[in-house]
Known about the structure:
About 60% of the residues lie in helices and about 10% in strands. The protein has helices spanning about 10-45, 70-85, 90-125, 130-140, 145-175, 180-185, 195-235, 240-255, 260-285, 285-290, 295-350, 360-410, 420-430, 485-490, 525-530, 535-545, 545-555, 575-580, 580-595, 610-625, and strands spanning about 440, 445-455, 460-470, 475-480, 500-505, 510-515, 525, 570-575, 600-605, 625-630, 645, 655. It has a 6-stranded mixed sheet, sandwiched between helices. It has a 4-stranded mixed sheet with strand order 1-5-2-3, covered by helices on one side. It is elongated. The N and C termini lie far apart (about 115 Å). InterPro entries: AAA+_ATPase, ABC1_TM_dom, ABC1_TM_sf, ABC_transporter-like_ATP-bd, ABC_transporter-like_CS, ABC_transporter_sub-D, P-loop_NTPase.
Amino acid sequence: MAPVLSKYVTQKNAVIGGAVAGVPLLVYLIKKYALQSKKTVKRRAPENDIQYLIVDKSAEKKNANKAHVNARFIKQLFFILKIIIPGFTSPEFGLLLLVAASLTARSYSDIWMIQTGTVVETAIISMNKELFKSQLLYFFAGMPIISLVNNVLKWSIGELKLRLRTRLSRHLYDDYLRGYTYYKINNLDNRISNPDQLLTADVDKFCDMFTDLYSNICKPFLDIIIYVYKLTSTLGFETPSVMLGYLMVSGFILTYLRRPTGKMTVIEQKLEGEYRYINSRLITNSEEIAFYNGNNREKLTVLASFNKLTNHLRKFLEFRVYMGFVDNIIGKYIATVVGFYAVSIPFMNSKSYLSNLSQNERFRNYYTMGRMLVKLAEAIGRLVLAGRDMTRLAGFTARVTEIMTVLTDLNKGHYVRTMLTDNNSSLNEKKLVPNSGRIITKDNIIKFDKVPLVTPNGDILVEELSFEVTSGMNVLVCGPNGCGKSSLFRILGELWPLFGGTLTKPPKGKLFYIPQKPYMTLGTLRDQVTYPHTKYVEEMQRRRKTDADIANHLERVQLSYLLQRDQGWDTVADWMDVLSGGEKQRIAMARLFYHQPQFAILDECTSAVSVDVEGSMYQYCRDAGISLFTVSHRKSLWKHHDYYLQMDGRGLFQFNKIDSDTEEFGS
């Protein structure tokens, strides 16, 4: 007899079949629409016309962007954990224990609520009013304790995040602001293009992700231990073993499928950093861009960076949706099916002790144990899904490890920079190696002995520079642009490495540098003069100086009117915006007078100051015993100097005394 198919076509089956058939169609339509949208966007996207490069050598390294949950990730994570959790007696470790204890208390609270709720429902079904009232009151009395447990857990997780971020940030900033590392990471080493992104956003996300993952793993892990113990003592080990076996198999499958997540997280943070960097460049160079009317061009560059970021985020979103679909199937729905099968084993077994109980007793046991099995299945599902966060944590761990490695290298004097092939070969021919020179610290003298002027890119400006300056000698440094004047001062200030020779110079605190655009710090008017001193009160007492002495310096640079502001020395303002270019240059000279070093490097630092004020400032430097290295194109400054150092831009230099026969040049 032919089968009658119509008896299977019910309304319920038709709805299920239609839904199942409709899912692939819906996915196909969404995918088709997304492809069409991508084609439309691709034709109009700014990156088709705009090209830019932000150097990031780390991305060129093999396996640089590959972050997986493997032995390398575990090693990196434990290295960071030693920093943010320094010991068993640290507050961070205590918070870890508090989180674990709160999670344990929460799991026992869940069991208590299941058991008490079952008794309350049994009292309702059996119409036992006394039992119902007593158990309901008992249930109500436990609510404040459970609420306290939940809020202690919430506080401990939040406090743990803050403390971990504080530990890690302080450690990184100790390395970042040690010596000139903050300068070298941005100007010498090109492995990291956006340290601000790594130091702020990535550190924050790492600490959040680690803390959330810790709680998300601890809770289900503790649940599994507690529920397995409870179920094993009642139903035997066969039922929990099925669930645990499924945990291992599903965890292995999902961990393998999630491997691209770590790499995509690293790329996401890199593109976020590029987008932020391009916006910060717009702010930093806003005046120059405005003079060029370059707003439309900059807009295209910003949009190009933004579109790169959004395109990647869209791909990442699609991947997470696909993985979410698989996660839900494996981590939730199949886990529920496995849970039903596991709970049925002791109830379907005729040899089990449950077969000798009454139907009501079996129902009560099934209700209690079934709820526990559901909780166990949920815990296993959460543990399986936690692997998704583990892969993202691997990405942030790789990012944080990257900047820690670079900072460690820079503090040891090692930097990595991409050089032109020709420059590299010329350096090798002349046997010029970074940090191969020798620095001797000595008061009242600056001496270059066969020191090559070499840029970090490998350009040789002067093969061997030799001259000697002692205290009391003022030197005017001159030459065309690109001849090596700034390079000379960067080497003298130990910002750039020595490629050979011997440099004799005073200690860092006795050598002062004033650029053409002086830096104004955040703080009071007094802070602008005493910068970079942090404890100016103690420092002024040590130097036996008072506010009256600083006021005299302001008078010398004709800025005493600044003291007439509301709070005088304690006036707080955004001095970079409040002061004009000439006022900032005069503040910088007052700063020089306050510190009174042995030598000062003046790099076009009086270009916005009138000649008469400039002359009085130079005369005071001579009277105060401050020897000067000056870069300037003003003829009026020659009379304030004793020697001149001239570089021609072709590798040659002259160091001679200024006399009546010396030809003065400049404007």
